């Protein structure tokens, strides 16, 4: 049996402990609302500048790869249809005993449309590529580049960013005269 003096001494301690707990609970802040997501880019111009930098880095990585740098990874800038098309093109060239050699230069990057939202940024651009120093070569070393190929090609490029870097989702050939008109 607990002596009554212990109960009388313990009771004020328990009351004090309970009161302190209530006071501390009242002092804690209420849970804060999650901040609203902010767009990755503050404007369309910022999104186009980042997209151009991404495309130029992709092109540079492709040039590095063609020039023997096996650590260059141009495919890291691609996803979806663009990645599938790149892999299919590599397979096709390999199966035909062909390879692309030389450099390709981005001569112009023209932003066409951008949708900058907190959850996702989507954009479309026209990219002009100087391919005059690039050649299609057979395994025998014969240049099989078409004599009909213009020195500048145009690509319509679609890119997107969800939570990080912009990636190229889709590329398709555009009319080359769009580049000469710029």
Protein described:
By secondary structure, this protein is an alpha+beta fold. The chain has a single domain (44-180), classed as Nuclear Transport Factor 2, Chain: A (Roll), CATH 3.10.450.240. It is 37% helix and 26% strand. It has four helices and six strands. It has helices at residues 4-27, 44-66, 80-95, 177-180; strands at residues 98-101, 105-116, 121-130, 135-138, 152-161, 167-174. The strands form two sheets. A four-stranded antiparallel β-sheet has the order 2-3-5-6. Strands 1-4 form a two-stranded antiparallel ribbon. The longest helix is centred in the first third of the chain and has 24 residues, at 4-27. The relative contact order is 0.15. Mean pLDDT is 83; it is low at 6-28.
Short description:
With 182 residues, this protein is an alpha+beta fold. It is 37% helix and 26% strand. It has one domain (44-180): Roll (Nuclear Transport Factor 2, Chain: A).
List its salient traits.
182 residues; alpha+beta; Nuclear Transport Factor 2, Chain: A; four-stranded antiparallel β-sheet; 4 helices; globular
Which of globular, elongated, flat, extended, rod-shaped describes the shape? globular
Which class of secondary structure composition applies to the elements? alpha+beta
Largest sheet, in brief, is:
4 strands, antiparallel
Rg calculated over all Cα atoms? 31 Å
> How many helices does DSSP assign?
4
Average pLDDT for all residues: 83
CATH topology: Nuclear Transport Factor 2, Chain: A
Q: What is the string of SSEs from the N terminus onward?
A: HHHEEEEEEH
The number of strands is 6
Fraction of residues in β-strands: 25-35%
How many domains? The number is 1
Q: What is the end-to-end distance?
A: 97 Å
Looking across the biggest beta sheet, what order are the strands in?
A: 2-3-5-6
Name of the level-1 CATH class: Alpha Beta
Q: Would you identify the CATH architecture? A: Roll
Helix content: 25-40%
């Amino acid at each position: 049996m607990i002596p009554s003096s212990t109960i009388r001494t313990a009771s004020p301690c328990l009351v004090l402990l309970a009161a302190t707990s209530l006071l501390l609970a009242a002092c804690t802040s209420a849970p804060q609302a999650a901040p609203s997501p902010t767009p990755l880019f503050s404007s369309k111009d910022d999104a186009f500048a980042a997209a151009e930098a991404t495309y130029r880095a992709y092109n540079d990585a492709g040039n590095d790869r063609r020039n023997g740098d096996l650590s260059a990874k141009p495919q890291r800038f691609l996803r979806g249809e663009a990645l599938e098309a790149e892999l299919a093109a590599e397979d096709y060239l390999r199966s035909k005993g062909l390879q692309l050699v030389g450099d390709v230069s981005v001569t112009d990057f023209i932003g066409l449309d951008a949708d900058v939202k907190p959850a996702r940024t989507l954009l479309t651009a026209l990219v002009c590529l100087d391919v005059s120093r690039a050649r299609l070569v057979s395994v025998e070393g014969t240049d099989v580049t078409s004599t009909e190929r213009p020195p500048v090609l145009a690509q319509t490029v679609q890119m997107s960013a969800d939570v990080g870097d912009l990636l190229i989702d889709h590329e398709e050939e555009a009319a080359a005269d769009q580049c000469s008109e710029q």
